[in-house]
């Protein structure tokens, strides 16, 4: 399956696929089962039965597009206009759903199989006879967003022996040279030490690879002092450190760098869509391994902010690297709003499963802004609470300002969010825990690329 790269304005030899609904004048022998396709091949025509119009929405069309992207029985040319529902599903939304859905399924992601099942060579294209400027803009935006998401998905699924901290930073620096409106700075160990990022460095102690902090900046409105800074967790593999993960719980930990890939992917899309705003991203990158000098439980480390942290769980390393990244965003990049993205807590999956991204916001305005962006991009988020009660245990250290985890076993995602909030220097703050929505059944999903881009727009 090939990616959809343009809108077709003329009929091709592919079978034209049209939507048909309950109550329409149905052709003979049509299968009246939702999402079932009936083909009339002598006419090079096919209908997909969508059922009752009132039950069809954006998600219905997107799911159909993904399914066609994986399983198209032949070459289809989608008649986009036939899916439009007056006052319910606009042409722009239909274009958006099909472009994103097909290209999500058709993405060529990292794979080292020496043999595989036969690839589906059938292609799905999009047909619109006389596209308006609005239609062209909808297609262009959707293409940019899904390409950025797929770029992040590809990084996420890559094996950790092919993507260490040094390689990830190098990939971003080289790839982003194509965007002349982005500046990229890669901080190496000496610069990280000079900044006093003791928490990030503590996690890196067990690694054979060097830590990296990648700073990406976009200035779409130089006259404004407002700036949003995205901070992404970039743990290229998480063994748990001395609090080592056991058995199957270590599987999938290559995805622990996803937050950093998500914020970088958002910057990739922002560079192409060119909003009139200022946005930066900070990727905090290392792995979390065990060697003779790795950080020990009971150790105390000093953060960039000057706050000290007692380590009562080396497997709660993500919040450590993020703490230094958040403070860097607040102090060195002068953020007026901080947003972080992290596969942070297993407790998040227990709370919201794989359906919603847990979202914390220090102000109602911040929540309303990101909620509006998420709805526009059809990504599900759920507001979670900041509350001092979640931090009481962590503030009970006898030897440091904070412990890095709450060992009560209650509200683990909320206590992690409260820990991070300590390092935001009072800047308006949104925390996104994508532990459940980032990958599902080992497959990379990478929620929030589209929402973060929409928020900038």
UniProtKB/TrEMBL annotation:
Briefly state the protein's biological role.
Presumably involved in the processing and regular turnover of intracellular proteins. Catalyzes the removal of unsubstituted N-terminal amino acids from various peptides.
Q: For this UniProt record, give its keywords in alphabetical order, as a comma-separated list.
A: Aminopeptidase, Cytoplasm, Hydrolase, Manganese, Metal-binding, Protease
Q: What chemistry does it catalyse, as a reaction equation?
A: Release of an N-terminal amino acid, preferentially leucine, but not glutamic or aspartic acids; Release of an N-terminal amino acid, Xaa-|-Yaa-, in which Xaa is preferably Leu, but may be other amino acids including Pro although not Arg or Lys, and Yaa may be Pro. Amino acid amides and methyl esters are also readily hydrolyzed, but rates on arylamides are exceedingly low
Note on how the cofactor is bound: Binds 2 manganese ions per subunit.
Q: Where in the cell is it found?
A: Cytoplasm
- Per UniProt, Mn(2+) 1 binds at 238, 315, 317
Q: Which Gene3D superfamilies match?
A: Zn peptidases
* Every Cytosol aminopeptidase domain range: 313-320
Q: Where does Mn(2+) 2 bind?
A: 233, 238, 256, 317
**HAMAP family cross-referenced by the UniProt entry:** Cytosol_peptidase_M17
Which gene codes for it? Answer: pepA
Q: Is Cytoplasm among this UniProt entry's keywords?
A: yes
Species, as recorded? Metamycoplasma neophronis
What are this entry's molecular-function GO terms?
aminopeptidase activity
Q: Which InterPro entries match?
A: Leucine_aapep/pepB (IPR011356), Peptidase_M17_C (IPR000819), Peptidase_M17_leu_NH2_pept (IPR023042)
The entry's family comment says: Belongs to the peptidase M17 family.
Q: What is its EC number?
A: 3.4.11.1, 3.4.11.10
Q: Which cofactor does it need?
A: Mn(2+)
Listed name of the protein = Probable cytosol aminopeptidase
Q: In the UniProt entry, which residues are flagged as the active site?
A: 245, 319
Major place of localization?
Answer: cytoplasm
């Amino acid at each position: 399956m090939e990616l959809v790269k343009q809108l077709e304005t003329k009929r091709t030899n592919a079978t034209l696929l049209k939507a048909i609904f309950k109550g329409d004048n149905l052709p003979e022998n049509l299968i009246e089962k939702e999402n079932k396709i009936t083909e009339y091949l002598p006419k090079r025509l096919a209908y997909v039965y969508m059922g009752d119009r009132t039950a069809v929405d954006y998600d219905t069309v997107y799911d159909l597009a993904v399914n066609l992207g994986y399983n198209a029985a032949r070459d289809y040319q989608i008649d986009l206009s036939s899916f439009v529902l007056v006052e319910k599903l606009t042409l722009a939304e239909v274009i958006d759903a099909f472009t994103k859905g097909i290209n999500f399924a058709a993405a060529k992601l990292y794979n080292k199989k020496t043999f595989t099942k036969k690839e589906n060579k059938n292609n799905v294209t999009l047909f619109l006879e006389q596209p308006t400027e609005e239609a062209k803009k909808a297609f262009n935006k959707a293409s940019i967003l899904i390409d950025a998401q797929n770029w992040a998905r590809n990084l996420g699924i890559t094996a950790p022996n092919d993507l260490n901290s040094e390689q990830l930073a190098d990939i971003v620096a080289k790839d982003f040279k194509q965007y002349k409106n982005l500046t990229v700075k890669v901080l190496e160990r000496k610069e990280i030490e000079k900044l006093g990022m003791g928490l990030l460095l503590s996690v890196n102690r067990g690694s054979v690879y060097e830590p990296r902090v990648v700073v990406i900046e976009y200035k779409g409105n130089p006259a404004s002092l407002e700036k949003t800074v995205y901070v992404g967790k970039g743990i290229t593999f998480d063994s748990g450190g001395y609090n080592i993960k056991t058995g199957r719980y270590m599987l999938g930990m290559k995805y622990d760098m996803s937050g950093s890939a998500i914020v970088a992917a958002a910057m990739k899309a922002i560079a192409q869509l060119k909003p009139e705003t200022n946005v930066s991203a900070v990727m905090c990158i290392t792995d979390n391994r065990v060697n003779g000098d790795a950080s020990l439980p009971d150790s105390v480390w000093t953060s960039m902010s000057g706050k000290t942290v007692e380590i009562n769980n080396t497997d709660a390393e993500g919040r450590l690297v993020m703490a230094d990244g958040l403070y860097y965003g607040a102090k060195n990049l002068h953020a007026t709003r901080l947003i972080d993205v992290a596969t942070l807590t297993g407790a998040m999956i227990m709370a919201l499963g794989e359906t919603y991204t847990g979202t914390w916001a220090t102000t109602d305005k911040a929540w309303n802004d990101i909620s509006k962006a998420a709805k526009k991009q059809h990504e599900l988020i759920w507001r979670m609470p900041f509350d001092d009660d979640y931090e009481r245990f962590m503030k009970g250290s006898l030897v440091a300002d904070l412990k890095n985890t709450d060992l009560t076993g209650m509200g683990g995602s909320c206590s992690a969010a409260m820990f991070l909030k300590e390092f935001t220097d009072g800047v308006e703050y949104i925390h996104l825990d994508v532990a459940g929505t980032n990958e599902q059944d080992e497959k990379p999903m990478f929620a929030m690329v589209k929402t973060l881009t929409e928020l900038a727009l």
